[in-house]
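Table S7 (text form). Paired inputs.
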Amino acid sequence: MHSDVLSLSVNECQPVQRVRLESNLPSKEKIPVSWVIVDDFLKYLPTPTLPYLVTLIWQVFITLTCLSTVIITTPTKKLPVKDKAVLITGCDRGIGHVLAKQLDRKGFYVFAGCLKNRGQGSKDLVDGSSSRLQTLQLDVSKLTQVKSALHTVEQQLHSKGNI
C-alpha cells in the first residue's frame, strides 16, 4: 500500500509535524483526526518484540518486588510513651495547640506553654484533654516566665518520680 507524507500544522501554536496519510483518502476531503498518525512520535517507540516484552515484564516484577519488600520490612515499632513528658511552647493556637492535644492522646505528660494562660486557647486545651496535660504561662521572650515554667515542670516530674 502506498502512503504519502504531508506536513500539517496541528494548530497554530504548535510546530508543523510530519504525518502519514493513507493514499486511498481523497486529498480534498477533510481528514479526521483519528486517521492521522504522528510519524515523529512513532519512530522513537521500540518495536514490541518478544524479548522486549519479557524484559519489560521482568523489570516491572523486580521493581514491584523491591518496593513491597521495603514497605513490608520498614520497622513500625514505636518508642514507649510510659512516663515521658514534653514541654511545648506556643500552645495557644496553631501547631503547638494541635501537637499538645495529639501527644496527650498518645499518653505523654504534656506541659503546654501558652502566652495567655487564661486565654481561649488554654481553656480549649484544658477542656478537651486528660489530666496529663497542664498549661503554663510561658512567654519565651521573658526570662522570669521561662524560669518559672522550668521550676513547675521539675516539681511536677519530681512528684511523679520521673526525675
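Next pair, protein 2 of 2.
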Amino acid sequence: MGGINGENQPGQTAIDFGFLPKEKRYRLTLMADGDHNMAFREQYITVTTKDNLPVKWLPQGGFAGYIEEL
C-alpha cells in the first residue's frame, strides 16, 4: 500500500486495516517521511483488522507499506 502527498504542505492520513481477515495478526513494514525531505523512517508494526494507524507526511512526501501474515 502507499500514499503520496502532491501538495506543498504537510498532511496526514489514517490506514484502516479493516480489510484484513479477522483473528489473524500481520506485520506491517512502513516506510514514511522522516524529519526532513531527505530522510525517511522505517517501522515494523504488528496490526490486526481492528487497527487504524495515523501516518504523517511532509510536503511532496508519502509512504509505502508491505503487510505479511505472522
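Strands lie at 2-4, 11-16, 26-33, 40-47, 52-57, 62-69.
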